[in-house]
Hints:
- By secondary structure, the chain is α/β, with parallel strands linked by helices.
- It has one domain: Phosphatidylinositol (PI) phosphodiesterase (TIM Barrel, Alpha-Beta Barrel).
- Helix content is 34%, strand content 13%.
- The chain is built from 13 helices and 13 strands.
- The chain has helices spanning 4-35, 68-76, 138-141, 169-183, 196-201, 207-216, 234-242, 258-263, 269-272, 275-281, 310-316, 349-357, 369-377; strands spanning 52-56, 81-83, 85-88, 94-96, 119-123, 126-130, 188-189, 192-193, 227-230, 246-251, 287-290, 320-321, 363-366.
- The strands form four sheets. Strands 7-2-1-13 form a four-stranded parallel beta sheet, covered by helices on one side. The protein has a four-stranded parallel beta sheet with strand order 9-10-11-12, covered by helices on one side. Strands 4-3-8 form a three-stranded mixed beta sheet, covered by helices on one side.
- β3 (85-88) and β4 form a beta hairpin.
- α1 (4-35) packs across α4.
- The protein starts with a helix and ends with a helix.
Amino acid sequence: MLSNLLRTSLLCAGLLGAALSAQADTIQSAIDWAQQQPSAKPSQTKDAKAPLVIAHRGASGYVPEHTLAAYALAVLQGADYIEPDLVMTRDGQLVARHDNELGLTTDVAQHHEFADRKRTQTVDGVSLEGWFSEDFTLAELKTLRAIERIPQVRPANQRFDGQFEIPTLQEIIDLVKSLQLSQQRVIGLYPETKHPTHFQHLGLAIEAPLLAVLKRNGYDSAQAPVYIQSFEVENLKTLSRLTSIRLIQLLWTDGQPYDQQALGTDLSYAQMITPKGLQAIARYASGIGPEKSMIIPRDAAGNLTTPTHLVRDAHAAKLKVHPYTFRAENAFLPNNLRSGDVQSERGDIDAELRAFLATGIDGLFIDQPDIAVRLRETR
């Protein structure tokens, strides 16, 4: 007869094997789905000096964001990096969501078994009502399905509502590694730590689990194809002491990083983009991710004006510059580049991209990576 220990070992091995098999099936299904989409195309060789195309939340202009399908499609469209925003579950797992509030991007409201999880709390100084990732285990989150976050602008994406799971960071890495083999090129990861101070106060700090997953998968050096980004400052400084992975300081147009607000400092984003502020960033980060209007502002009429000195000043501090977020729909474009009054219609994003590429940026975040890849190839 088998010993109890051996029986337990075999059972665990069987369960692990079944779980890994299911995960592999999920990843392959995402790749198969992406390959069938019209915007997928054969892989191209990128000029090493060309600006990076970073798929913002995946190919989120075509399919609900932060899904394996969105990431797979982005890679097949030629994106150099895919960007998963990361939040924590109650049991300490890293999953991809734009925010820890789940109501805008999942079908949680339709799950009556989770009705009592809806609550109001303060996140980064803002009162929010909804369902929050930190109140769910990974197993519970896996019962939810993604929905389109901005259906009024992307109504076509709603046809995919309810089809795709919430992926873990490990699943995203497994997807990337599978696609690297089939595409025969390096595909980068560009994770963002979402609400790090909030999660730290809950005892669910993101930094150590993130580095552990990355290291386990071979991402543990400055040469690894990975950037870690954050709007906060102190967690990037902490990461800079723990890893040599490249870090990116995200920047907003006003106010200050939430961790600086919580600490009671007067450090503002405006101070951070001065030459002195950029030099301070360079002591812990490899680059900046500014909101794009910080590079080319818009005038009162909503049209692009003259570029600022931010790219020049950042490069003088030896920082890379990766602005966000480029989107093809009229709702997000300068007024004179819109194709009409329908917010969901596409305008002249090519003209906007050319203007920003001319400033010397080193990369950009975009919801429709195929557009930036095409434009880069024809420069």
